[in-house]
Design goal:
Radius of gyration: 18 Å
Largest sheet: 3 strands, antiparallel
Number of strands: 7
Distance between the termini: 33 Å
Shape: elongated
Number of domains: 2
Structural class: alpha+beta
Bound molecules: zinc ion
Helix content: 25-40%
Low-confidence stretches: 7-15
Number of helices: 6
């Protein structure tokens, strides 16, 4: 692997970490007039670019603001402005409650999840391609058995 490849890999945004879609996240997206998914993309995009969050599952369940303050001297409203484009007092308050979350982790308890046996499969007609899951894939938490879909 040459240097450019190494750099490209190092700066590639991590797809394993997202923000938990909890009450604070939803309230913040309503306040800023954006969809939760778009807002998460914007926040995480900036967090990866600035190096606040790296490809590391260990940060799941921790506050995003703590990861930011670990690396930089920045005020809460400054962090909110950088990540969301707003330094509104209420937005900052909600921003400071955002929790980092592993993609595919149970939204209830944070446990590890697996594809649910309840998924319906469509088998292929040629018997060569593996059967596909019909619609959205359902996941089940190995810890609390909560079932959920991943966007
Ligand atoms: Zn669970």
């Amino acid at each position: 692997m040459d240097l450019f490849e190494t750099l490209a890999k190092a700066t590639k945004p991590c797809k394993l970490i997202t923000i938990k879609k909890d009450k604070s996240m939803i309230e913040l997206s309503i306040l800023l007039g954006r969809s939760p998914d778009l807002l998460i993309d914007q926040i995480m995009g900036n967090a990866f670019k600035a190096g606040y969050v790296i490809d590391d599952m260990c940060v799941a369940g921790k506050l995003l603001i703590d990861q930011i303050k670990d690396g930089d001297l920045i005020t809460n409203s400054g962090a909110c402005l950088f990540h969301t484009g707003s330094y509104d007092k209420d937005a900052t308050k909600l921003f400071c409650k955002l929790i980092l979350w592993g993609i595919g982790d149970c939204p209830e308890c944070g446990g590890f999840s697996e594809s649910s046996p309840a998924n319906k499969f469509i088998s292929s007609s040629d018997n060569l391609t593996p059967p596909e899951i019909k619609g959205k894939e359902l996941f089940i938490c190995m810890n609390c058995e909560h079932e959920f879909y991943i966007d």
